[in-house]
């Protein structure tokens, strides 16, 4: 299911906007600066102009030029380039003066771009809030919201703001102050609007005492969002002492426990937001006492039990949000709220049947979200819903099937509809494209929709995103709506070729993976210059890619498991932003593409099971973001590049700056498997592999020669290293024990020689090891880790005739295999051993002869017997043992 939280938030704000604007002229939205006009008679008071200029001096960054016209008066009395508009502070941007006295009464410098961080930084003021503002004694309105002010050395809200006694409106939201909220703000007794919403990344602002709020008797709007109030227990009593309060927003304030009863005394409230806290227990019936509420947001808490039926007494309620809790019941009384425009109850544990009775009076409803519950929508096919103005509906994970809900055809004004995972096993009705011709978002994924797609889908001219993935749709892909930006129809049974006019001008995401699509990729795909994600995996597509294929914004390209052939088009080197490239299991040929080394943001590269040839290009080691490299089962030859240490993302401490971008790919349904620990394992999707930070190098089944570079041991973040079935020679890197993250190591089927490095026994995470069929010699390193691996994989040393010692049965006579003397096989064969045996035992016979002669010189028969008996026994045992070992080696070689 696609996440609907951003859409829900936008819809919630839209629904709440109308009554907030009518409630107060100083609503939370930003207002444009007031310009008194060229005919205004008021002029700037000099000392207040100086105060504003001093404030400007504290501004170190002004990317949008907000304060560009704030200039000092020219020494000669001139007016600068813009005449008197430059010297008259009453005409400066963001400044408003009293028409009667000329004093500055408003300073509106809030950043209007307060939703997206990138846009916000492009227009935000940077610097400190100067104490010079104290000279503006008549200031009534101060808005510095969503700028990048540090608040001075302490990073806290400046205490001197509490001295601006005439302030009625103070908005410091989104600035990111941290530390304690100064109680000095309680001196602003004329205050009507206070917004201290915190967005600090350095540690949220906090307060241990809010008793100062009781002095703000005229306060109508209070927002302490994300200010930590976890130690404040009397906040309900304090806010209950504010007789004029109409809006209370305390989201994300670390409040806990059951909803306190003094909240029921806030009968003057029209908006209450206690979302993103840790409130527990059932929602109390006294919620119904807040009869003046128009907006109630209790989302993202831990409330249990049913939504209280007393909610019916809040007759003017327009927005009700109790999503992301543990609620179990939804009362029918919700259907009596005739003023309700937004109902959000998603991500709870709601059970039961939703019938027509639940919506009998919801004539004003525009947005509804029942998703991620255990609800069953039991509505007659002949029912006509009363909410004709419905704009968004999310019924994901609600049981609506098995038939396609016929009552949906009356929602002709719908813009957003999600009926994914709804248990529908029907065909898509013919009326579908006409009924939803105004929709911009449609998701019907994870059902069992069958049959063909409607032929007239192109009439859905407003459609922006369409998700039909994980169904049983068949037939060909029809002509698609021209304005589509997102299309996911993967994991179906679609057949035929791709539409010739596939190149939709606005298309950004296209996935038709895991179908039975045939033919080639149409050249029209090149017209989709905004295409960022293309997934054609697991089909029967063939032929060569168009020579215009690729663009400079593409992030994700998966063409795996098809029958594509030929060389890769040179135009693909234009995909400079590419992060994922999967061309595996095709028939691509030609030399390994050198231009891959220019894709500096590439994180995932899989070319396995193709016919690529040539060397691994040296510039591949320039890919500092690369964390998954799989070029197995090709015809790659030559030696590996030496500067593997440049692959920074394969290290535990990665420092590649460009790799810090958030990896975000919306297509995630295609199953992904990788070879790890000697078997093929499934990991769900490529984005999940990247998100799990799985670091892999697989070069197996190629013709790579030369030594394994020692630099490979610097890649201490690798989890899987597979160099098997190549022609590597030389020694196993001596410092391989430095690769402390290794879980799987496969060097089998090469020509490696020398001893197994002792450091290999220190790899504590290693759970799979295969060194079989090489020319390794000497004693096997000891250690419990290797002993455990051998018990699980007893063939991991097979085919190395020079290895000895436990856990193998052939013991080493000496620690150093190079010093095993006359029992080492040579090119002259086993008979050379007899020469050394004869030589040694000739010397031994001489010693025994002299000894026995000295002891038994009087009896030569005894001397002869002693010599022959001892020499025969020793020689016989030694020769027989050596001969048996030689026969065993011959058998292994054969």
Automatic annotation (TrEMBL):
One of its GO terms (cellular component) is plasma membrane. GO terms for biological process: brassinosteroid mediated signaling pathway. Pfam families: LRR_1, LRR_14, LRRNT_2. Its main location: membrane. The chain crosses the membrane at residues 834-857. Residues 1-29 form the signal peptide. Belongs to the RLP family. This is Leucine-rich repeat-containing N-terminal plant-type domain-containing protein. It comes from Miscanthus lutarioriparius. The lineage of its organism: Eukaryota, Viridiplantae, Streptophyta, Embryophyta, Tracheophyta.
């Amino acid at each position: 299911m696609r996440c609907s939280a951003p859409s829900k938030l936008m819809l919630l704000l839209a629904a709440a906007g109308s009554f907030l604007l009518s409630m107060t002229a100083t609503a939370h939205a930003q207002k444009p600066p007031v310009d008194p006009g060229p005919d205004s008679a008021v002029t700037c008071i000099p000392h207040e102009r100086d105060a504003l200029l001093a404030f400007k001096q504290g501004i170190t960054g002004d990317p949008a030029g907000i304060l560009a016209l704030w200039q000092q008066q020219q020494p000669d009395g001139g007016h600068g380039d813009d005449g008197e508009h430059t010297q008259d502070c009453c005409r400066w941007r963001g400044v408003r003066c009293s028409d009667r006295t000329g004093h500055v009464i408003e300073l509106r410098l809030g950043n209007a771009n307060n939703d997206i961080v990138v846009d916000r930084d492009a227009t935000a003021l940077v610097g400190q809030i100067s104490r010079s503002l104290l000279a503006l004694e008549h200031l009534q309105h101060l808005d510095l919201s969503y700028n990048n002010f540090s608040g001075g050395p302490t990073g806290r809200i400046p205490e001197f703001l509490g001295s601006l006694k005439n302030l009625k409106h103070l908005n410091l939201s989104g600035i990111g102050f941290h530390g304690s909220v100064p109680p000095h703000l309680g001196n602003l007794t004329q205050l009507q609007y206070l917004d201290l919403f915190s967005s600090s990344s350095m540690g949220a602002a906090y307060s241990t005492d809010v008793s100062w709020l009781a002095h703000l008797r005229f306060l109508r709007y209070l927002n302490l969002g994300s200010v930590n109030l976890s130690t404040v227990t009397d906040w309900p009593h304090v806010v209950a002492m504010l007789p004029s309060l109409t809006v209370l927003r305390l989201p994300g304030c670390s409040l806990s426990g059951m909803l306190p009863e003094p909240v029921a005394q806030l009968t003057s409230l029209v908006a209450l937001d206690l979302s993103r806290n840790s409130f527990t227990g059932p929602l109390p019936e006294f919620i119904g006492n807040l009869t003046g509420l128009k907006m109630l947001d209790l989302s993202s808490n831990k409330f249990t039990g049913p939504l209280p039926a007393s909610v019916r007494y809040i007759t003017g309620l327009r927005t009700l949000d109790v999503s992301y809790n543990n609620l179990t019941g939804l009362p029918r009384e919700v259907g009596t709220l005739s003023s309700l425009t937004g109902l959000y109850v998603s991500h709870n544990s709601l059970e039961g049947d939703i019938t027509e009775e639940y919506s009998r009076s919801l004539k004003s409803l525009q947005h509804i979200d029942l998703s991620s519950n255990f609800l069953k929508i039991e509505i007659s096919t002949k029912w006509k819903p009363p909410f004709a103005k419905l704009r968004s509906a999310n019924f994901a994970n609600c049981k609506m099937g098995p038939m396609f809900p016929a009552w949906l055809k009356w929602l002709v004004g719908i813009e957003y509809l999600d009926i994914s995972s709804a248990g529908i096993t029907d065909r898509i009705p013919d009326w579908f494209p006409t009924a939803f011709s105004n929709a911009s978002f449609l998701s019907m994924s994870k059902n069992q929709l069958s049959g063909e797609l409607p032929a007239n889908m192109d009439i859905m001219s407003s459609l922006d995103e369409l998700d039909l993935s994980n169904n049983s749709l068949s037939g060909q892909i029809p002509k698609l709506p021209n304005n589509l930006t997102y299309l996911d129809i993967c994991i179906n049974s679609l057949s035929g070729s791709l539409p010739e006019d596939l190149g939709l001008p606005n298309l950004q995401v296209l996935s038709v993976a895991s179908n039975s699509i045939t033919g080639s990729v149409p050249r029209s795909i090149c017209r989709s210059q905004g295409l960022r994600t293309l997934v054609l995996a697991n089909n029967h597509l063939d032929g060569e890619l168009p020579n215009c294929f690729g663009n400079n914004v593409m992030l994700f390209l998966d063409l795996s498991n098809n029958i594509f052939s030929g060389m890769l088009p040179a135009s693909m080197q234009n995909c400079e932003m590419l992060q994922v490239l999967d061309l595996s299991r095709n028939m691509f040929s030609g030399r390994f593409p050198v231009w891959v080394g220019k894709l500096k943001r590439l994180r995932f590269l899989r070319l396995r099971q193709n016919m690529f040839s040539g060397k691994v290009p040296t510039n591949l080691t320039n890919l500092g973001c690369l964390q998954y490299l799989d070029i197995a089962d090709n015809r790659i030859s030559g030696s590996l590049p030496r500067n593997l240490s440049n692959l920074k993302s394969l290290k535990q401490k990665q420092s590649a700056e460009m790799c810090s971008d958030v990896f975000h790919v919306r297509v995630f349904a295609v199953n992904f498997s990788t070879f790890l620990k000697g078997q093929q394992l499934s990991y769900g999707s490529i984005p999940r592999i990247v998100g799990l930070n799985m670091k892999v190098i697989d070069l197996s089944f190629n013709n790579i020669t030369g030594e394994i570079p020692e630099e490979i041991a610097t890649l201490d973040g690798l989890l899987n290293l597979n160099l098997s079935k190549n022609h590597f020679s030389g020694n196993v890197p001596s410092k391989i024990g430095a690769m402390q993250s290794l879980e799987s190591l496969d060097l089998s089927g090469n020509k490696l020689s020398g001893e197994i490095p002792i450091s290999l026994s220190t790899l504590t995470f290693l759970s799979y090891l295969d060194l079989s069929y090489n020319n390794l010699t000497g004693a096997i390193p000891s250690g419990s880790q290797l002993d455990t691996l051998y018990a699980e994989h007893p063939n991991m040393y097979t085919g190395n005739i020079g290895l000895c010692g436990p856990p193998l049965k052939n013991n080493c006579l000496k620690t150093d295999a190079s010093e095993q003397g006359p029992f080492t096989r040579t090119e002259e064969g086993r008979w050379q051993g007899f020469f050394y045996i004869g030589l040694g035992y000739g010397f031994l016979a001489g010693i025994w002869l002299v000894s026995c002669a000295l002891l038994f010189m009087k009896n030569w028969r005894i001397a002869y017997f002693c010599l022959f008996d001892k020499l025969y026994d020793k020689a016989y045992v030694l020769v027989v043992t050596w001969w048996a070992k030689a026969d065993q080696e011959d058998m292994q070689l054969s």
